[in-house]
Amino acid sequence: MHVFLTGAGGWIGSHTVDELLANGHRVTGLARTGASAAALQAKGAAALPGDLDDLAALQRGASGADAVVHLANKHDWANPAESNRAERAAVQAIAEALTGTGRPFVFASGLASLAHGRPSNENDPSPSHGPDSPRGGAENLAFEHVAQGVRSVAARFAPTVHGTGDHGFISYLVATARRTGVSGYVGDGGTAWSAVHVHDAARLVRLALEQAPAGTRLHAVAETSVLSRDIAAAIGRFLNVPVKPIEESEAVAHFGFLGRFFGMDMTSTSDLTQAAFGWTPTGPTLLEDIAAGAYA
Question: What Cα–Cα distance (Å) separates residue 244 from each residue in 185, 223, 236, 241?
Answer without folding.
Answer: 7, 24, 9, 10
